[in-house]
């Protein structure tokens, strides 16, 4: 029997008993002969038999699984979101299938198809920076499988979404740099395809306007979030004849990259250049990065709870849940 997954039929044939008898033993049914029970358990253990939990649940109308697609594991952000999701899924006695798109639209589509094929009861998604077409998620809607977006969301679909107040967080970050006396504040922005990038850019711009600071387009650089491009963008700012005295970064990995490059040039932080990030990743605490903290695990719990509300209710909602941010001031500013 080696070379394939052991089934109830295999065990029944080996012991010359009925499939129903084997099934009763493996599901804990009391009405089974003691010697037969012992033989079934002994053989199933020796063959490493594993119950197909998903298939069994499907006979009850649900797979008891949900899926989640995240764009990367570069920082602690998405793993922390997943911890929040798992907390709620465990309480609901659900399995969580975790997929990572690696910032690739094609991989995201493949992930969605795989989860659809596994007949998940619901889907949680944070889209890639490349995603402009959402047909692969609209399939779930047509099949009446709930979808909830978080962090990076799709405005085309009227489904629940969990975000943070990106605008307010960016405004507070820029305001902080202004109040510390910085005059030339650059912004390493995110991809234009992401709504959160637009909100953080708007917060940055409005803070400059409110405090009567000049808006210099040369100090605003749109990034695609890749590490190799980040080196180029940061070098460009540092090589300016009149370089910035502060940089507000779209996220913490970009901010950490900026700190490393600034120090490599022998410049002082925050005296020469102050740095502020966004998200409060684990590494940020270790290096003293000033950042906008997001309630990451709460985002995961909230998204999961919204998804289960959709799964358990016939009435669908398109609620948008916006969580607050907090500016954490450390030594980089």
- As a percent range, the share of helical residues equals 40-55%
Characterize the overall form.
elongated
Summarize model confidence as the mean pLDDT.
90
Q: What structural class is derived from the secondary structure elements? A: alpha/beta
Helix run count: 13
Secondary-structure element pattern, one letter each: HHHHEHEHEHEEHEHEHEHEHEHEE
The total count of strands amounts to 12
- Portion of residues in beta strands equals 15-25%
**How would you write the strand order of the largest sheet?**
2-1-3-4-5-11
Low-pLDDT segments: none
The end-to-end distance, rounded to whole angstroms, is 64 Å
Q: The biggest beta sheet, please?
A: 6 strands, parallel
Q: In angstroms, what is the radius of gyration? A: 26 Å
Write a concise keyword list for the protein shown above.
333 residues, alpha/beta, 6-stranded parallel β-sheet, 6-stranded mixed β-sheet
Concise summary:
Helix content is 45%, strand content 16%. The chain has 333 residues and is an alpha/beta fold.
Structure, described:
Helix content is 45%, strand content 16%. It has 13 helices and twelve strands. The chain has a six-stranded parallel beta sheet, sandwiched between helices. The chain has a six-stranded mixed beta sheet with strand order 7-6-8-9-10-12, sandwiched between helices. Strand 8 (246-249), helix 11 (252-264) and strand 9 (274-279) form a beta-alpha-beta unit. Helix 1 (8-15) packs across helix 2, helix 5 (77-91) runs parallel beside helix 13 (296-312) and helix 10 (227-238) packs across helix 11 (252-264). The termini are far apart. The model has no long low-confidence stretch (mean pLDDT 90).
